[in-house]
Amino acid sequence: VIFxxxxxxxxxTDLHEWLKAEGITHLVFTGVTTEVCxxxxxxxxxxxxxxxxxxxxxTASYFPEFKQAAIEMIRAQGGIIGWTAMSNDxxxxxx
Length: 95
Known about the structure:
By secondary structure, the chain is an alpha/beta fold. It is built from four helices and three strands, in the order αβαβαβα. The chain has helices spanning 15-21, 34-47, 64-79, 87-93, and strands at residues 26-32, 51-60, 83-85. A three-stranded parallel β-sheet has the order 1-2-3. Helix 2 (34-47) links the parallel strand 1 (26-32) and strand 2 (51-60).
């Protein structure tokens, strides 16, 4: 559990240092709200060099159109922020 003072999980927390110390390079995102906290954290992670995936059916929003817009922004330009997938497809692709 990360206790975060802002919208993103990296701001004013030790998350980045902990992930690097553990050798983690890939992150999978779930949660609420897709277009605020989830997307902010995903953008912060991408800026720090992590490979990111968002599980579309494991996020939510008060406004379905905002969630869809966030998903489209993540996918834009060939996955500039990261990739998206449905959870069943993601789990099936794991080794």
